[in-house]
Each structure stands twice: as structure tokens, then as C-alpha cells.
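Homework help board

Subject: predicted structure for assignment chain

Our instructor gave us this sequence and asked us to write out the predicted structure in C-alpha cell form, then describe one feature. I got the C-alpha cells but I'm not sure how to describe them. Can anyone check?
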Amino acid sequence: MDTAKQFVARWKTEYDFKTYISAAASLMVTLIFAFYNGFLGIHHSSLWYGAICVYYIMLTLLRGLIITAAKRIFQRKSQKNARNNASLVISFLLLILNISLIVPISIMVKQQKPVSLTLIPAIAMGAYTTYKVIMASVNLRRRKTTSDSLVWLLRTISFIDALVSILTLQNTLIMVNSNGEDLGMLPLTAISSAFIWVAALLLSLNAIIKEIKRAKNG
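My C-alpha cell output:
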């Protein structure tokens, strides 16, 4: 009982602790979402869903790497330098991962996705995406309250995750309405996809710049 009370108390008062716990939960949810996209990719022979599945798996591994690094760093005496170094390495990995996002985006823009979906997956995807975008946006602003570089990075990853969810929703809506045969949405798809991709890259670059500054300031 005391342990449960301590957990609740830390959850309410310690932002960093809450972030790590939420990240662990998000890790599992993201992995399930990755497998769902993988299932759609296999079931419908869709290269798009296969590529998104791989992206989400890598994003899950990146979150897991941050949580593992935080746990190991907590046990060290010199935590600040170790945390900054880990954050810098993970920031570069995040940039590489987001550069690779061009693969599923190019597939979607070219509409190489002969998949027919019903309205139910679109509604479910819309609700899930709306929730993720709202929570990620709120937490992206709140990250300014922390001095933990790994927590700051987790919130950045969560927002990028939400942006990619918008891409997935966009793709699903296009398939529901056109079955991948109508090219009339091509210009809008290209513009919105490019905007989201650039935003993800800028967030990654911003993370790298911030971690380099942290390293220089010791």
C-alpha cells in the first residue's frame, strides 16, 4: 500500500518520473500499433504499411533505448555528462530514422497502395491520432520545465510519433475514399506529407543542436 501511495505521489509531483512511466506505456502501445500496420501490410500486400511498421518498430526501440539509458545513468555518480552524451547519440539516431521516413512517404505520394479499407479503421485511426496529437502537443510545451535531456528527448519523439500518425491517418482516409485509384489527391498528399516530414527533420535537428550546446556547457 505504501509503495502504491509513493508511486501516485511521485506521479503527481515529479514530471520526469511521470514522463518515463508514460514513455514505457507508450512503448507498448506503439509496438502494438506497429504490429497492426504489419498485419495490414501482410494481409493486403501493402508496401506502405510494411514500411510504416518498420518505422514504428524502430521508434519503439529508440524509446526503449532512452528508458534503458536513463536507468543505467541513474546508477552512476557522474550523471550529467553521461545523460548528455546518451541524448546526443540518440538525437543522431532519431535524425537518421526520420530521414528514412521518406520511403513510406514516397510510397504514399505515388499511391503505390492497392488496398481497400472500410470506414471503421479510418474512424478508429482518427480517434487515436487526435488523442496522440493533443497529448503530444501539450507535453511538447511542458518539456521546458525539465532539465533532464532524456526526458526532453522523449517528449520530442512523442510529438514526431504523433506527426507520423497523421500521415497514417491521411493514407487510410485516401484509401477509404478512393481505393488508391484516384490521383486527384496527389498534390495535396505531396504537400502535407512534405510538411510533416520537414517538421520531423527540424525537430530532430533541433534536438541535436540542443544536445551539442548542452555538451559544450558541461
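Reply (TA_rk): Your C-alpha cells look well-formed. For the description, you could write something like this. Residues 15-216 form one domain. That's the kind of observation they're looking for.
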